[in-house]
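FAQ: What does the model actually see?

It sees only this:
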Amino acid sequence: MQTNQDMLLRRGLLLEYATLGWNVIGVIILAITTITAGSVALAAFGLDSLIEILASTMVIWQLTGTDTTSRTTPALRVIAIAFAGLALYILIQSTIVLATADHPGRSLAGTIWLAVTALTMFALARGKADTGRRLDNPVLRTEARITLIDGALATIILLGVLLNTALHWWWADPIAALVLVLYAAREAHHAWNEAATASAHIGD
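And it is asked to produce this:
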């Protein structure tokens, strides 16, 4: 008979598998729409989806280990490094687009995907936050915040894409992508601090 802890672990894993599957599909869709539309914002969100895939993989690795405590620090550090790399890429790419005034095209498929993804990420983040809190699992709680902000970022980028489509404000697309820089840098810092705290607890 399953204990409450086992049920929570199973729930956490199911939420991560759902996130993983959604983002794998999303990367494919966003890769296609990015090529056709030339949108920096869509490209940035596609990279963010790759980061989410990595984050979900690390959470699954941590939750399925026989000693989840020893896996907490490396999992959080991998997430932190990945987000730092994302911030650097988006900053460089968006700056180039703004400097060259490269106008992105329009993508109906990308717009629809962003809208549906925002709703899905908000729902998954709520489930992960609740499960992580009940399990007292810092990796799952951190990844829940990543998923929550993923939903918010999908909303922000959706706004940029819609402004470009409706009002031809081409600069709204790379500006929306730049919002990801602040988010990625913030999450990298937070995950690294969480890793340091977890490492200190293991050493105690």
